[in-house]
Every structure is written in C-alpha cells, then in structure tokens.
Amino acid sequence: MEQQELIPHLFRTEYRKITAVLCKLFGISHIEIAEDIASDTFLLASETWGYKGLPENPVAWLYKVASNKAKDYFKRDVLFHQKIAAQISNSFTGTGEIAIDLSDKNIVDSQLQMMFAICHPSIPVNAQIGLSLRILCGFGIEEIADAFLTNKETINKRLFRAKETLRIEKVKIEFPNKQEINKRLEAVLITLYLLFNEGYYSSSQNIPLRQDLCLEAMRLTHLLIQNPSTNEPSINALMALMCFHSSRFEARIDKKGDPVLYQDQDTGLWNQELIAKGMYYLGQASQGNEISKYHLEANIAYWHTVKEDTEEKWEGILQLYNQLLQVEYSPIAALNRTYALSKANGKPEAIIAAEKLKLIDNHLYHSLLGELYTNIDNVKAVMHFKTALKLAKSVADKTIISNKILELSVQSN
Amino acid sequence: MKDFLLVFRNDFASIPKGSPEELQALTKKWMDWVGGITAQNKLTDRGSSLAGGGKVVRPNNVITDGPYTEIKEVVGGYTIVKAETIEEAAELASGCPIFNYGGNVEVREINVM
C-alpha cells in the first residue's frame, strides 16, 4: 500500500483501537485525553514517516508511540495522575510506570466494553450512533456530519453532550454482568441496526461513506459474534439481515448515485458471497427458541434475495410482516405488510387494508395507494401519486414518483 | 384510545374439520385478519385461543365438566384491541374469519377503574 493511502487506512483501523484501550485504562471521564493521544500519534506518524520513510512495522510503531505519549502524559499531568492513579493501580509496573496493554485480546475486549459503555441507555440513540462512529469506527467529525446530513457544529455538540452524560452517569467501561447483559445487548443491537440503516437508507450522496457505515456496523456486529458471552441468536439474526441487505449494495444505486428500484435491479450485481454468509448467520440465529425482530427482518430480507415472484415468497413475506408488526409496530412495516398483502392476496383486499392505515402524512403511504390503484382505478392512482409527490422530500423520491405519474398519463392517452 | 376485549364465540361442532390444506387456509385467514389490525397499530394483545372443554366451578365446591362442546356459542378465544369508540372497535371485528363458520364476536370495553 502506498504511503498516502496507508495513513488513512491505519487511521481507520488503528485509531479506534488505541482510543478504546486508553479509554478503558483511564476511565470514561478521560475519553478526550484518549482521543487526543490517539490523534497526536497519527499526527506524529504523518510527519515522521513523511521524511524518514515508513517504519518496518507501522502498526507496532503507532502502538509504541501511543504508549509513550500516554506515559508522558501520565508523568506530566499531576492532576490527572492523582485522579486516575487509584483506579488503574493494577496497571502499574514494578518501576512505577503504567503498562499499556495493546495486545489483540485487550484491544478487542476494550472495544467490546466501549461498545456497551457508548450504548448506555442514558444517551439518546442518535448520539450513541455518533459516538460509535467516532470512538469505535474512527470516523472524522466531518464524515459523521455528512452521514447525518448535518454540520460539524451539530455533531460536535451532540458528541460533547453524550460524553458529559457518560461522565455524569459514571458509566463504567466493563462487561455488564450476566443478569444485565441481555438488556444492555438489546441497546447495543439497536445502535448497530440504526448505524447500518444510516448507511443503507441515508439520502447522503456520498456513496463510499454510506458503504463504509454499513461495513463498520457489520464489523462491530461481528466482534459481538466472536465473543462467546455476547454471541446470542439475535446478534446472528442482525448479522444475517445486514448481509442480505448489503448483498444488493452495488445493484441498488446506479453510476450517477441514483437509487435503482428493486424490480429494476440487475441480479448479476447481487453479491452471492454475502447472501451465502447471510444464510450461514441465519442458521446460527435459529439455535434456540428466541424470535426477535431481527430474526423476522432477516427472514424477510432473505426472501428479497429471491428475485422470482412466487406464491410461497409473498405468502412468506406477508406472514413475517404479520408477526413483525406484533413484535414492534412501525408505519414502514405496516406499509410493507400491505404491499405483501397485495402480492399474496390480491390488490382489492390490499386496497381495503391500505385505506384503513390512514398514514396520510407519509409520502410512502400515498405511493403505495398509487401503486395499488394502478390498473384498477387509474384516476385515483394518479391522485395518490400527486399527493405523494407533494409530500416527498428527497430529489430521488420525487423522480421516482414523477416517473409513475408520467407512465400512467402515457397509458391513458 | 381505549382497550376493548373481543370475545370469540362459536359452535365447536360447526368448525370445519377439513383437510390440512383447508385448516392451513383458515389459519392464514386469522393471521391476516390480526395482521390487518396490527398494521393499523390497534392491537393491544394478540390474546389466545382456548382449548375445548374445561370445568365450571359453582358455589359450594360444585365442579362440573363443561362448558359442553355441544352447546352453541362457546368462548373459543380472545384478543384485545385499541380504539377510540366502541363503534370503531366493532368495525375492527368485522372481517373476522369466525363469521365464515357461524361464530360471532362480542365487543366489550375494558373498564380501567
């Protein structure tokens, strides 16, 4: 790898490891110090490597420098020394120096424990996602702002407040105990699920960034799967869901960055390897009796990897949505369920069901009604598509809806 | 929104004893009907169906078998739904697959006091 590519690459993979380990060592109150030391390390790397050339083992170099910086900080800052000396007393070596453990095991453990700390119930969910991106994924503030379609100041404020909360709540960087782990794991799962969705459904035009978000969510999920105490069926179900969805990443966005509708996608671009992985994790998820919403969503996502419309497919999807809505109602699930109903039981029944949903402020609701009325009552279909057009916000959505209206008007002439 | 209890009553004798495919189709009708209520975000509790037979306990420790499955209108199950008014709750009950085989649905507001 070329040097100019290597530093950003290492930043992405190593920054978070150094931060997690130092944070774990110093405690959550000193999260900024951990971040500063990690950032300084990379600054020094880009300067030093620039004129001296690459060290033999760049990763080892980074760890060494980060350790030294941490030790220096520790010696220099008396206040810091006093504050945390007590809690890290067992990390001191015989000579009175602190030992910084950057072994693979401690890195993974620290990252997992940080994950639980960040996904603490006291922090609002979108701040959890932001913090995860910063601390666990090593994303820059600008990238996070871009992913959330907002500005740097907003993200900085959001992260600052989240860190304050972690301090005030005295959240510990540790594995929750056995009784608590499932409840806390649920919060972690929600964050990972939303992190993935942020990448998958975001209207940000930055495609590589969106793909990165999805990959990061999968990487963190994988960390939980590899750890025996967190390798629960629901984690595997979430992983399966992510694999199935991301198998269509290449196919669902065209070269210009515009979305390609499912029925227009080139199945040749569907990633078979990810589909196979999804099948594997779905199998792992079926061990045990638990059926979480991730199980149901993963099964629905599985059916979407089968392009061909069969009775079995749509009946399967319909029943999965029937179950999913009972676990957790959401307007989008209600709309998708009604679409599946039209495919399984026919449009007339679906129209009656759709009219009852009354999600009149939702552009997707009117798009669905437009779709259902198409070729049954085209006047109503156009009326609903026009309402959808008024309610839709993104350019991509508006284009799709306009095309539907155009198709219908061509048909009627 | 208030909660309403839907009590399903039917004549056990008239329940279709069809082929597995017919029973499967009937199960699907129930699942789709409940799914429709859930999609409107108006399901409070899916409830349960009740097994046939049972005991009736009366004062002075008189316990008899029953209710007999021969009698019409045995309670066969229940579901709890959310609605603004009893009329709306009754509307939710329409389309219940139980009507296909001679049953009925009793709709009762749940008293919170």
Description:
- The complex is a heterodimer of chains A (413) and B (113).
- Chain A is mainly alpha-helical and 413 residues long.
- Chain A is 71% helix and 0% strand.
- Chain A is elongated and about 80 Å long.
- The model of chain A has no long low-confidence stretch (mean pLDDT 88).
- Chain B is of the alpha+beta class and 113 residues long.
- Chain B has a single domain, classed as Alpha-Beta Plaits (2-Layer Sandwich), CATH 3.30.70.
- Chain B has 2 helices and 6 strands; from the N terminus they run E-H-E-E-E-E-H-E.
- In chain B, 19% of the residues are buried.
- The mean pLDDT of chain B is 89.
- Classes of the chains: A mainly alpha (413), B alpha+beta (113).
- Chains A and B meet through helix 14, helix 15 and helix 16 of A and helix 1 of B.
**Domain count of chain B:** 1
Largest interface: A-B, 18 and 12 residues
Number of strands of chain B: 6
Q: What would the average pLDDT of chain B be, to the nearest integer?
A: 89
Structural class of chain B: alpha+beta
- Counting DSSP E segments of at least 2 residues, the number of strands of chain A comes to 0
Helix content of chain B: 10-25%
Strand residue content of chain A: under 5%
Strand content of chain B: 35-45%
The general outline of chain B is flat
Helix content of chain A: over 70%
What is the correct CATH architecture of chain B? 2-Layer Sandwich
Oligomer: heterodimer
Give helix and strand order of chain A, one letter per element, not per position.
HHHHHHHHHHHHHHHHHHH
Number of helices of chain B: 2
Briefly note the structural class of the backbone of chain A.
mainly alpha
The number of distinct helices of chain A, counting runs of at least 4 residues, comes to: 19
